[in-house]
Amino acid sequence: MRVFSRTRQALGLLLALGVTLSGLVLSAPTVRASTVVFDSTNSTSQYATFSVGNAWFAYKFSANTDTTVSTVDVYTTADTGYQDFYVRVATGATTGNLASFLPASVETGVACADRVCAKVTFTGNVDLTAGNDYWLWIGADAPSQVGNYLFRGSSATVPNLPLGHTMGTGDIESSTGSTFDSNNDGYPWVKMFTSTATSSSATSQSTVPEFTINLITSDGAQCTQRDVSAPRGLWVELPAAADCSPPTSQPTATLLGWATNADFPVDIAQRQVNNGWGAYQTFNDDGKLTGVFIPAGGATFVSNSTNLYPIWSE
């Protein structure tokens, strides 16, 4: 593997990364167009698959604080016919619909633990009240074999968020009248977001499609923010070392930063952090870009949806 011998400036990243991330400067302004308020992607052992053609499944969750949900990402088994999918938030498993969310976009080839999923983004709006239970209905208005993988492996969704759920019994129901238990059958991968205040530059670009930088953690590692979302053309800040707890297998590790591939060389990342040299790019012998490292707490320019992986100290 061939690597640059010095740190490139923001323009170098802009030209090299193209469709992934288009640049980074540590002094860039912070803009978050949306914030995750519910996240069930911490369970990683796939157990069941529910198809939603001409049907729906309702999944229970609770509001820990007053929250407005404006976007819902649902990870599905495929993207075929996703336009017929819908998401509803209700006060009950079969009644009490509060709001309907319609599909706005789809991203294919998304890693769901050891599965490959499609991520369907639904948009709508609903206000939820602290202390109340709600139900998330996921369904389709047409025949389809597409559905949701249900994952086991965690007793609850990602903690310390405005919305969450502790796995239990009788907390999944279907339009056919069947009842299931999440602590046995699992829970689908879902993320919910709320819109947040943005800078004037973000407001002026409100019609630009929003993209998400997925922060992929595993082995018990957690960050206060699991995703960073903003319209194309804005700068967003990535979580700093103090915002993340280390994986179970490395309890004393410190987050060095974020990389476009999980196996980015730790020695290079450590060197960049120790010397304050900032972002770094690696290339293969053919001159093809193979990876980019972004120090923890740095900012990046959004051009498309992508995944970033934490690099921990040894």
Tell me about this structure.
- The chain is built from four helices and 25 strands.
- It has 314 residues and is mainly beta.
- It has two domains: 149 residues, no CATH class; 158 residues, Jelly Rolls (Sandwich).
- The strands form five sheets. Strands 2, 4, 5, 6, 7, 8, 9, 11, 12, 13 and 15 form an eleven-stranded antiparallel sheet that branches. A seven-stranded mixed sheet has the order 1-22-23-21-25-16-18. A three-stranded antiparallel sheet has the order 3-10-14.
Care to give the gist of this entry?
This protein is mostly beta strands and 314 residues long.
Count of discrete domains: 2
- Any guess at the CATH architecture of the largest domain? Sandwich
CATH class of the largest domain: Mainly Beta
Quote the average pLDDT: 81
Which overall shape is indicated by the principal axes computed on the Cα atoms?
Answer: globular
CA-atom Rg in angstroms: 20 Å
Derived structural class: mainly beta
In CATH terms, what is the fold-level topology of the largest domain?
A: Jelly Rolls
How many β-strand stretches? 25
Largest sheet: 11 strands, antiparallel
| Helicity level | under 10%
SSE pattern, N- to C-terminal: EHEEEEEEEEEEEEHEEHEEEEEEHEEEE
Describe the oligomeric state of these chains in a short phrase: single chain
Residue ranges: pLDDT <50 for 5 or more in a row?
1-32, 197-207
How much of the sequence is in beta strands?
A: over 45%
Q: What's the end-to-end separation, in Å?
A: 21 Å
| Tally of DSSP helical segments | 4
